[in-house]
Amino acid sequence: MQPFTTLTGIAAPLPLANVDTDKIIPARFLKTIKRTGLGVHLFDTLRYDETGAERPEFVLNREPYRHAEILIAHENFGCGSSREHAPWALLDFGIRCVIAPDFADIFHGNCFKNGILPIRLPREICDALIEDARLGGNARITVDLQRQVVVRPSGEEIPFQIDDFRRHSLLEGLDDIGQTLQHAPSIDAYEQRQTADHSWVPAIV
Amino acid sequence: MAGTPPRTLFDKVWDSHVVETLPDGTCLLYIDRHLVHEVTSPQAFEGLRMAGRKVRRPDATLAVVDHNIATSSDRAAGIAEPESRLQVETLEQNVAAFGVPYFPILDARQGIVHIIGPEQGISLPATTIVCGDSHTSTHGALGALAFGIGTSEVEHVLATQTLLQKPAKNMLVRVDGKLPLGCTAKDIVLAIIGTIGTAGGTGHVIEYAGEAIRALDMAGRMTVCNMSIEAGARAGMIAPDETTFAYVRGKPYAPKGEALERAIAYWRTLPSDEGAHYDKTVIIDAAAIAPMVTWGTNPEAVLPITATVPDPAAEPDVEKRARMQRMLDYMALTPGQKLSDVPIDVVFIGSCTNGRIEDIRAAAKVAQGRHVADGVRALVVPGSGIVKQQAEAEGLDRILLDAGFEWREAGCSMCLGMNPDKLTPGQRCASTSNRNFEGRQGPGGRTHLLSPAMAAAAAVSGHLADVREFA
C-alpha cells in the first residue's frame, strides 16, 4: 500500500449528504476481478448522461477538479453496500483524501486499507473547506497526517483525530495482514482455547 | 461472577472473540464463520496468491454465487454475460485452488449468501460471522455478531481468520407491545429506520428487543437485522431464545445431540445483563406501526401506506427541503399524492431481506384467487434452492403462477441491478429488497420498499395498496 504522509492538492467540493456507494460506483461496474480501472465509472450517474456524455455541471467534469486529490462532502458519506470498489474507484480517479462530517462505518474502514485518508470534521468546517475548494486551482489544501492537520489556503490549520493504529499504518504504508501475522502465536492459542471451550462450533466440511 | 460489570449481548460475543488487544484499543477479533461470494472475493484471493498465503481455515469458510447469476429457468446453460461469467468462473477456480467449501450454481443449497448461512446451520448464536457484503447483519438474528466487510478484510480473514476492529458502541432498539394485523417485520424495521434515520446507528451495534421482536419468528428477525445497515449500524443482534434454539435444531451444519445441548446451555447465558449500558436507546410502540412504504431514495424516506407524498414546501430546513425535492423529482411523485394511488410497473419479491419461505407464503396468501394487474410484471425469487423446493412442496409456486407471477430460480435478482433482472429507466417497482437508492435496481429505476404481502397487494392492484384491505 502506498504510504500517506502529506498531500497538497486540488479539492473538489461535493456538498451532498448520504452519498451512497451505489452512487460512488453502481453495482453494474462491480463485475471486475481487478482493483484498478474503476476511476472512469466513479460517480457514473452523476458524471455522465444516458448517452454516456459528460454532464458539464458535475464538479469532476470541470477544471481544475478533474485533477482533484481531495473530496469534501456532507454527512453520511459512503453509506450502503460494503463494496471496496467505492474506494478503489476514488483512488483510481486520483482521490487520496475524503473530508466529511461523518462516514458510514464500512466505507470508512475500507478507505484505510487502500491508502485513502477519510477525515471527519464538523459540518461548519467542511462548509468552509468547500468554500475554499470552490476558489479553484490556486486554492490548494494540504493534508498533513504526520501533524494531523488540514491546512487551508489561508494557512489556517485545522486539527483532526484519527486512531493511532490506522495513522501508523497509513504513514508507513503497512499491510494489515503482515501486521496481524506477527500475532500468529496468539491466534494459535485462541484456536486451541476455542476448540476446548466452544467445541460445539462444527467445521464446515 | 462478583465484580463483573453487566454486559450486553454484543459485549459478550465480542469479549469471547478477542484474541489480543493492541495498545490503542484496536482488537484482533477471531472470526468463526466466513461467507464468500463472487463479487467481493476475486481481488482477495488474488492478494493471497501474490503473497503466497493460504486460507487459514477453509473449514470455517463457505462460498456461493448469488449476485451475478441469472434467475431464469435456463441457467443450467451457463451465464451469458461475459463479465459475470468470468466472476463466477474466477470464484470456482479460487475455491478449488484454496480448498474452500462451495455450493455451485446448480446445487439445491445454492442461494443468497444471507439466506443459506442460517438455513444450513452455518450461522449460529454466539459466533462471529463476516462476509464481503453489508447485509451480513442478517445473521445477527440468531444472536451472532455478524457484519459486512470490504475485500481487503475478506483477504485478511482468509489469511488470518481474524479482523482488526475497534469495539462498536451499544444501541438498544426496543419495540414494545404487539404489532397490528397486516404488519410484519419489514414494517417494523422500516419504521425504525424512519425514526432513527439512515445514519442513526453509525458506529453502533443495534440490539433489537421488546415484545414485538420476541414475538417474531426467525425469518422476521432476520428481516429486521438485515436492514440494520440501512440505519447505519454495521450489525444488528437479537438475543437467542427458545425460538432461536428450535430453529437451529436439525439444521445440516448445526451441532447435534450432546454438543447442541452444551451449546444451548451456553447460548442461554448470552442475553444482556440487567443494568447493562447502552450508549443510545430508542423505544418504539409496535401498536403505532402501520404497513410502510418508502417514497424517496433512501430507506428513511418512508411513510405508512395511508399517508400522502410529503410536501418539501412544508420542510423548514433549506437543505432537507432540497433533498426532498431531489427525491421527488427522481421518483416522479407529486406532493399530496396518495401513496396508495401510485401506479407500479414491476413487483419484486425476494432478496436477502425477504426471500425466505415465510415471505413467499405471505405473498402467496395475498395472491391466492387474484391476478397480477394488467401491464405489471411480478417476479417471485426464492432466496435459495431449498426455499424454492419447500415452496413447491407447499404448492405456493402454483398459486403464484396461476395468479400471473413469475416463479424464478434463487439469487439476488432485482435487488441490485447486476444480473439480468433489472429495471429499465423510469420503471417503478414495489420491491421487498433493502435499498431504494437512485439506480439501485437498474439505471433510472424507481424503488418503493415494502413487505412481501404489501408487494403482492401492489401486484394485484397495479398500484401501491394497503394490504389490510386484502384480508
Describe this structure in words.
The complex is a heterodimer of chains A (205) and B (471). The two termini of chain A are 35 Å apart. Chain A has one domain (6-197): Aconitase, domain 4. Chain A is globular and about 65 Å long. In chain A, a hairpin with a 4-residue loop joins strand 6 and strand 7. The model of chain A has no long low-confidence stretch (mean pLDDT 96). In chain A, the strands form two sheets. In chain A, strands 1-6-7-8 form a four-stranded antiparallel sheet. In chain A, strands 2-3-4-5 form a four-stranded parallel sheet. With 205 residues, chain A is an alpha/beta fold. Chain A contains eight helices and eight strands, in the order E-E-H-H-E-H-E-H-E-H-E-E-E-H-H-H. The longest helix of chain A is centred in the C-terminal third of the chain and has 14 residues, at 184-197. With 471 residues, chain B is α/β, with parallel strands linked by helices. Helix content of chain B is 32%, strand content 16%. Chain B has helices spanning 9-15, 42-51, 82-98, 113-119, 151-160, 185-196, 211-214, 218-226, 242-248, 257-267, 318-331, 351-354, 357-367, 385-393, 396-402, 452-461; strands spanning 18-21, 27-30, 33-36, 61-64, 102-103, 128-131, 145-148, 162-165, 169-176, 204-209, 235-237, 280-285, 292-294, 302-304, 346-349, 377-380, 406-407, 428-431, 446-449. In chain B, the strands form five sheets. Chain B has a five-stranded parallel sheet with strand order 5-4-3-6-7. Chain B has a five-stranded parallel sheet with strand order 17-16-15-18-19. A four-stranded parallel sheet of chain B has the order 11-10-9-12. In chain B, strand 13 and strand 14 form a beta hairpin. The termini of chain B are far apart. At the A-B interface, helix 4, helix 7 and helix 8 of A face helix 2, helix 3, helix 5 and helix 10 of B.
Q: What features would you highlight for this structure?
A:
heterodimer; A: 205 residues; alpha/beta; Aconitase, domain 4; 4-stranded parallel beta sheet; 8 helices; globular; B: 471 residues; 5-stranded parallel beta sheet; 16 helices; 19 strands
